[in-house]
Design goal:
14 helices, globular, MetI-like fold, single chain
């Protein structure tokens, strides 16, 4: 009876549709029903959930799990040949090459000095970018959570850069920051001296961080804004009755209740920062020199851009990056759980 009732409801909904789309939808429903009914009779209704998630599992296996296993195999092989059967097994030699250093704090003393320059650049970028993005996203969310004029407009303005392609963002800012760009034009009008911002080692990393914060903070602002709106207003009313000021509300009400959301933002921004490639590649290409070359770009250039394509070394570096990111994420989650239980 339940199946008959569902079919009747489906046909009733189809009847309400436009006459032009009704035959196509009816044909589609009939085709899907003809495929799924025999499957349901064979596996049973209790196991139909596995059938529905099977396409996603296949996609995950083909495009995620299989490349991970293949990357692990490449990290254990050497040579410059592409196909796995043509690559000799070398064990942990690629990892030994990456960690062959006299002094890990001095990249010039390492056999793969570019790898360690990428490591130090990535650490510096992650520290400054994640700190800035969490701070400015929190400030922006606090402002947009207040009753301000045109609040909906400003919320959409801050989120708009997230909708742009990272490559488009990088190209726009590259046009702004080039020697004859908009920024230097404004500086010269004000009587200042123009600079080659992206070619100056003292400024390149700053602008890389600035552009990424500008492009991504709207996403994290939206998450923090949702966390702020989930805080019951009764708590602020109770604190005002107790004589608390704005700073005390923020310290003792807002931040403790917002902390789980803050940890989500911290974990997501950390993962995104460690994996940053496209914006920096378009904006500076890793330059000047290797000043803004992060670890992901080292992996790319080692495996695909150099004249000698060292797929094994590149795969080993990506495994080091993946394990490091996993450890950092688990550590953050553990600290977050401890702080929530305290």
């Amino acid at each position: 009876m339940a199946g008959i009732r569902k079919e009747a409801n489906t046909l009733r909904l189809i009847a309400l549709l436009d006459p032009l789309t009704r035959p196509l939808l009816l044909l589609l429903v009939t085709a899907i029903d003809g495929i799924l009914k025999p499957v349901q009779r064979r596996v049973g209704i209790d196991k139909m959930g596995y059938i529905f998630i099977l396409p996603n599992l296949l996609i995950f296996g083909i495009f995620v799990l299989f490349p991970m296993l293949l990357n692990f195999y490449y990290a254990m092989t050497g040579g410059t040949r592409l196909f796995p059967e043509d690559r000799p097994f070398v064990g942990l030699d690629n990892f030994a090459t990456l960690f062959d250093c006299e002094n890990f704090t001095q990249p010039n003393s390492c056999q793969e000095d570019l790898f360690w320059r990428g490591v130090f650049n990535t650490v510096a970028y992650v520290v400054f970018q994640v700190s800035a993005i969490v701070l400015f996203s929190l400030i922006t969310a606090l402002v947009l959570n207040r009753q301000i004029v045109a609040r909906g407009f400003f919320r959409s303005v801050f989120f708009y850069p997230v909708l742009l392609s990272p490559v488009v963002v990088a190209l726009i800012w590259k046009w702004v920051l080039q020697h004859e760009g908009v920024l230097n034009g404004i500086i010269e009008i004000l009587g200042g001296e123009s600079k080659r911002w992206l070619l100056d080692p003292n400024w390149a990393m700053f602008w890389v961080v600035f552009v990424s914060v500008w492009a991504l903070m709207g996403f994290y602002t939206l998450i923090l804004l949702a966390g702020l709106q989930s805080i019951p207003p009764e708590l602020y009313e109770a604190s005002s009755i107790d004589g608390a000021n704005g700073w005390q509300d923020f310290r003792f009400v807002t931040m403790p209740l917002l902390m789980p959301t803050m940890f989500v933002v911290l974990v997501l921004s950390l993962i995104r920062a460690v994996q940053m490639f496209d914006q920096i590649f378009v904006l500076t290409g890793g330059g000047p020199g290797t000043r803004t070359q992060l670890l992901v770009q080292y992996i790319y250039t080692t495996g695909f851009s150099n004249q000698i394509q060292l797929f094994g070394l590149s795969a080993a570096a990506s495994m080091v990056l993946g394990v490091s990111l996993l450890i950092l994420t688990l550590l953050q989650l553990r600290l977050g759980n401890q702080s929530s239980l305290a």
